[in-house]
Amino acid sequence: MITELFVPGAPDLEDAYRDDLTKIANRRFFERRLNECLAAPSETDATTILLMLDLDRFKAVNDSLGHAVGDSLLCRVTQRVASQLSDTDTFARLGGDEFGIILHDRCDVSDLATRIIELVQRTYLIDGLPVNVGVSVGVAVFPTDAKDPSHLMRCADLALYQAKSAGRNCFVYFEQAMEVKARDKREMEIELRKAVAMRQLEVHYRPQIDIKSQKLFGLETVLLWKHPQRGVLDAASFIPLAEETGVIIAVGEWALKAVCREASRWPEEVVVALRVSPLQFESNRFFDAVKQSLATYGIKGHRLELEVTEGILLRDGKIVQTMLERLRSIGIRVAIDSFGTGIASLSQMVDFPLDKIKIAKSLVEEGTTGIKERAIVRAIAALGASLGISTVVDGVTTPEHLSRIQMDGCSSIQGCLFSEAVSADMLKTRVSQLTMPMQSTTTSETHS
To answer: CDD domains this protein is in (predicted)?
Structure first.
């Protein structure tokens, strides 16, 4: 059995095995110790438990308060976690805000993980500033989950990923189903990369109606994937994976070209709204890709509207402001998608050059009649009107629903009351009727 296990902060640890910042063990030491532990013969049924820890919201602290505060925070977190470990446990910083713990034949793993999470999330006072982070924990057990070090670390990583996906600030034990899910995810990533080149993606369009004139004025794009085995997949089925893996850049550029190509065949009055991923928006080549697509298909900038999430408003203000201004300089319209349920404020609408606000569907969907939701919608619509920013509501399904939206002061709508998303070919008739009143009958009701 291994008897000389690392005590966090032990002075006899060689420099080559010590993390420069936190002074605990580094990844090199951790991996060596894990190999030793799993290779050591045991006459009992003793188990080795691996915990992988990753801080929640650490990047936000680093970005907003600076690396010096971030470094101090890492050291404070290290001290708190170390206070819960025994002298037979191994604790190391694996890199960035990721840590690892090796436990030996302990039966209080869940209690330990709970204590660590509770301790880490307590407020830190650094340079007079209150700082808060959380921690997610993945747990894997040798030999139950894996028989070798690298596989055990992968299992703990998968459990950690699940903890992050489950809402963060929690711990999750590895389950075999996670590996199956990870394999499926990897296969889908490979297939998605091929889908762009093999023309399996398709853009559909959802008409947008101006409430006042009751005329079609624009189109919102809906991205679909015609998968050869899985069938037609909507954006929610693959866009999150595309964003996570970076494939969204290629997917987004393909969609941009496809939309501009189709728009070149439509009347000049038609504005097409295309959703843009935060990763794509922050890409160094995004602006050039937009300009090139417009030039290639002879599209004027005012005919393209780019939808970004409200989370964009919370990122580096100068970078976002500069990008928005560059886009506006070539006539591009900018809209905020699903506004009203995140943490961006109404005041930020004033700070950024916006043309449209798409109100979060949860605030306006049929059946939502709460005073709070109605008040939020009316406030957004009123501020938008005073700033010359149009407001669009998605998911309008009935004349009664439309009447309520009208009373709330919103300026435009979309939904199955008028048309579901359709292909470019099916859209030809609707686009040719651009100046015709919409066929749906609106109500003159004045009650809510």
So the answer is: EAL (cd01948), GGDEF (cd01949)
Three-state secondary structure call for residue 47? coil
* Cα angle value 78/134/87 (rounded, 5°): 30
| Interval 218-274: pLDDT, tens | 899 999 999 999 999 999 999 999 998 899 999 999 999 999 999 998 888 889 999
Class of domain 187-432: alpha beta
Q: What is the pLDDT of residues 140-171, one digit of tens each?
A: 999 999 999 999 999 999 999 999 988 889 99
User: Do 15-174 and 187-432 fold alike per CATH?
Assistant: no
> Which amino acid is residue 56, in one-letter code?
D
Q: Beta strands of 12-170 (E only): which ranges?
A: 48-56, 90-95, 98-104, 124-126, 129-131, 134-142
What's the pLDDT band for 4 if we cut at 50, 70, 90? very low
Model confidence at 446, in pLDDT bands (50, 70, 90)? very low
Q: What does the block give as tokens for 226?
A: 């015609």
3-state DSSP of 343-398 = CCCCHHHHHCCCCEEEECHHHHCCCCCCHHHHHHHHHHHHHHHHHCCEEEECCCCC
**DSSP 8-state assignment for residue 426:** H
> Rounded to a whole number, what is the distance in angstroms from the first to the last CA of the chain?
74
- Domain 15-174: CATH architecture, name and number where available: 2-Layer Sandwich (3.30)
